[in-house]
Protein: diguanylate cyclase
Organism: Tepidimonas fonticaldi
Amino acid sequence: MLPLDAAAPAWPARKPRLLLVDDQPVHLQVLYRTLSAEHQLFMATGGEQALRVAHEQLPDLILLDVVMPGLDGFAVLRALRAERDTADIPVIFVTAHSGEDIETRCLEAGAVDFIPKPINPSVVRARVHTHLTLKFQSDLLRTLAFVDGLTGVANRRQFDERLNIEWARAQRHASALSLILVDVDHFKAYNDHYGHQAGDDALRRVAACLREQVRRGTDLVARYGGEEFACLLPDTGLEDAQRLAVQLLEAVRAMAIPHRHGGSGGVLTVSLGVATRAGPARPGWQPALLLGLADAQLYEAKHRGRARMCAAALGDDGDDSA
Ligand code: GH3
Ligand code: MG
């Protein structure tokens, strides 16, 4: 048996989660005996049930029987790939039908591997181990590619991607889209007086505070640049975005992080620029326009004395501030 300590550092501390799918309970029992010591197991005896459990449990890997009444393995795999939350779960086909044809068909359908029945327990364990390692490595790479290392919120790359996606979605649904840019006030002075380490801590606390306040599942908090954060708010109009911005302003102030060298009231504060696209984009409007408007409002908030927010909607000439 392969010891788990042979695993790559990408492995999580918890037991890997496997979904076993076979219409014959006796085959499930053999797989259960083979894998239960080192894995958390979920089981399904049909295609529909497999899909339901896959969506509910989001397993790390699925061992899938090919021939089943109702939805067969190929149909299940297609359905998994079609949904965002299950699209990347690796699938190993397990089938009594052997031969190059079926093996090729399984791999072409998008399975990562093929295991013939009757199963050889040590081969199953070894292959499961290999594909879990690959899965956890790719999870780790995805996390590193999209998360800011210092604060743990989304990074600029993820923000840019989501801004384009949400811009297009708002256009399709004729819904509002808002953006709040948040910039720490007098942060250079903070670093100069309290040290870079304390500066890093303050950024982490501000990021955590924003994440605490920006709660809807579709919202995104990202580190936009050095001491600047962005909150992307789908389905949110100007008034709601302004209300949230004031809430963020107050929440950061309420942390009462001492800043006696330029901070307002002796504590660390932020300035915020809010921009909203209230309805459908006019011809020529691009996501960069929303960013530009939020940036202009942030500049205005700084100009008016910091520790405040300014807001505007695309297409409006007026603005609002607090
Ligand atoms: P303003 O109120 O106009 O925003 O002034 P400011 O001093 O905050 O702005 P400025 O752009 O002059 O300085 C930003 C500072 O943020 C300078 C930079 O060293 C600091 N900074 C940027 N990224 C980091 C980081 O990751 N860690 C730390 N500790 N400081 C950072
Ligand atoms: Mg600043």
About this structure: The domain at 4-144 is CATH 3.40.50.2300 (Rossmann fold).
